[in-house]
What we know:
Elements: E1 2-7, H1 15-27, E2 31-36, H2 37-40, H3 48-56, H4 62-73, E3 76-82, H5 90-99, E4 106-109, E5 113-116, E6 122-128, H6 133-139, H7 141-155, E7 160-164, H8 175-198
Parallel strand pairs: 1-2, 1-3, 3-6, 6-7
Antiparallel strand pairs: 4-5
Helix pairs in contact: 1-8
Keywords: Oxidoreductase
Family: Belongs to the NAD(P)H dehydrogenase (quinone) family.
Protein name: NAD(P)H dehydrogenase
Amino acid sequence: MHTLLVAANPDPRSLTHYVLGRLEAALLPGSVEIADLSQEGFDPRFTPADRRAYHEGGDYPADVMAEHRRLERATDLVLVFPVYWWSMPALLKGWIDRVFVNGWAFEHSPASGLRPRLQHLTTHLLPIAGGDFGAYERHGYESALRTQIEHGIVDYCGSRPGSTAFIHESEQLSPGATVRGVDRAVRIISEAIHARLAE
């Protein structure tokens, strides 16, 4: 069992990074790796080389192949990210656009249709939202985000859906409430991964 934590926030002092550290600690002594996309300078731009690789199902750029190797080592993937406009940040979306590609994450052709390829991976989500739980419920924001990521990306590639744990009201002035939200989210994700370890 090996967990890959992927974070997308440019501020190393952010709540995202605090949650990342808490989650890593909660998963130890298990095998854990962190991919801090901003710190590592991952380029999210989908280039002509990416487009060729997508259509050909191979000959991926070197930085994409490095991410493939990281994901191939992982049994669990956790995406830790602030919610921007009811979705993930552009950096994380660009990582998915470039890394979860035809020929690796799935295979698709007019003749054979879709063949998902990430069945070895369980994907968990830890979105950090500025809005409160009530607003997410009233407007369907959580449902929309989960449909987009869990169904549109995770299911499409054949990855097993893991736990999803939102932290709400991340920009409020009550540190106690934020800590409780972090504690809850870290507990949900870490317990889900530990439960898989025990299987």
